[in-house]
Amino acid sequence: MKTILIVDDEADIRDILSYNLRKEGFTVLTAENGKEGINIAETIQPDLILLDVMMPEMDGIEVCEILKSKPKTQNTLICFLTARNEDYSQLAGFNAGGDDYVSKPIKPKLLISRIHAILRRSQPVKSETQENELIIDRDKYIVIKNGKEIHFPRKEFELLDLLASKPDFVFSRETILETVWGSEIVVGDRTIDVHIRKLREKIGNDSIKTVKGVGYKFVEV
Q1: Closest-CA residue to 189 (of 216, 166, 208)
Q2: Within its chain, how far is the Cα of 66 from the centroid?
Q3: For 35-74, what is each residue's pLDDT tens digit?
Q4: Sign of the CA dihedral running 33, 65, 161, 164
Q5: Cβ contact 195:159 at 8 Å
Q6: pLDDT 10s digits, 109-168
Q7: Inter-CA distances, 31 with 62, 70, 99, 200, Å
Q8: By C-alpha distance, which of 49, 38, 69 is closest to 6?
Q9: Positive or negative, the Cα torsion across 200, 201, 202, 203?
Q10: In what order do the strands lie in the sheet with 142-145?
Q11: Per DSSP, what are the bridge partners of residue 127?
């Protein structure tokens, strides 16, 4: 069971997110300000922190920088929550060591999908048979096939990561769009098709199967 710490000065947001995350099976802790969040994080060392950017006294960027400077929390995953959409704010969050970024108003279903994706990236995956080996290193964003490193742009990597997280499980187009691209960005089915084609070119046609009318699945070969 993964532990998630929510750090946000708005009680309503803490309550809504806590309710939905607990329904999903997570252990949830909350803090109403940055200082409290740092203290809890050092004591409990959660698997993931949902960290609001705009908070009084100590904002989320500063909190993230402090956590990343401490030995006990330097590897803790951090996802920023904010109502601000400016590019510089997102860049500041990633530069501080953040792992992902979700804009308010938050859609619980989308957030949960993003949380699962973040947690998967923290654990390297290895799929191996006698003749084929595929390693997905979610921490370094690299893929190695038969000892050779293959370059993947971010969205291609995240799509492969999603499919490979559950071999033989069929991911619908809707789930793929929501998890990889998010509901805030409008893309069409053609975008998925193009990315699937590129994945097949790089790792082989047999690794990703089309389930007509539904979506795609990853197959260990």
Answers
A1: 216
A2: 21
A3: 999 999 999 999 999 999 889 889 999 999 999 999 899 8
A4: negative
A5: yes
A6: 888 888 888 887 665 444 443 345 778 877 677 888 888 888 888 888 889 988 888 888
A7: 15, 19, 20, 44
A8: 49
A9: positive
A10: 125-128, 133-137, 142-145, 148-150
A11: 134
Residue type, 214: V
166: left (phi over 0), alpha (psi -120 to 50) or beta: beta
Nearest to 82 by CA among 70, 69, 94, 67: 94
pTM: 0.59
Q: Which of 63, 59, 51, 68 is nearest to 8 (CA)?
A: 51
Bridge partners, residue 103, by sequence: 82
Residue-range domains of the chain with CATH:
3-121 (3.40.50.2300), 125-218 (1.10.10.10)
Angstrom distance (rounded) from CA 123 to CA 3: 16
The DSSP line for 187-199 is --HHHHHHHHHHH
Q: How many CB atoms lie within 10 A of CB 133?
A: 14
User: Based on C-alpha coordinates, what's the Rg of the chain?
Assistant: 18
Burial-class residue 168 by CB neighbours within 10 Å (0-12, 13-18, 19+): exposed
Q: Which two tokens stand for residue 158?
A: 């995240």
Alpha helices in 28-153 (DSSP H): 34-44, 60-69, 87-95, 108-121
